[in-house]
Amino acid sequence: MTDSQWLIVLLTASTALVSSLLTAWLSSHFSTRSEREKRAHDGRAAREARVRQQIGEVAQQISAMMLEIAPQFEKYEQGANVEAIQAMEAAEHIAKKHGFESLGKVQVLDDSVLRTRASAVFSEYELVTRKMTTSLSDQTPAPDVHRLPRARDAFFERAREVIAVL
User: Fold this and answer.
1) For residues 76 and 22, is the Cβ–Cβ distance under 8 A?
2) Contacts of 55 (CB under 8 A, 6+ apart)
3) In angstroms, rounded to a whole number, what is the distance separating the alpha carbons of residues 155 and 44?
4) Residue 39 in 3-state DSSP?
5) For residue 49, what is the enclosing H or E element?
6) What is the largest CA-CA distance in the chain?
7) I want to staple 91 with a disulfide (CB 3.0 to 4.6 A). Which of 37, 41, 72, 155 is the partner?
8) DSSP letter (8 states) at residue 79
9) pLDDT for 23-66, tens place per residue?
């Protein structure tokens, strides 16, 4: 072989080597990039599912509390003073129980405003029922029960906002 033939072989081999290295690098780069994008997408989807589940669990706890308290409010409306006091004491106990049971669910919520509003729902029910009990025994005006739906609505409004931006 002559020098020019060796040069041609060397150039051809070098070109093939560079071409294969470039092909390997490009495929690695794009596969890594697509894997990264897939992981990011899966992470966002998992976070979205987790947040929806957490909000759902808190909403179920609020609903369970309201269903359990509703008969006590009916007894309060229909009962005599002693029966109404007992009904509100029972309602306060129910609100405390559900508030305590919801602590773990509320504290894991990512959104601090949502956590505050969820806690406020349970606190408001507990506070209003306690004030209703004392107002009956002290013969003072009953507290504003319109605070209860406002607290609950504020939680659900914020929950919708959080879910909307997921």
Assistant:
1) no
2) 109, 114, 159, 162, 163
3) 23
4) helix
5) helix 3-78
6) 117
7) 72
8) S
9) 878 778 778 888 888 898 899 999 999 999 999 999 999 999 99
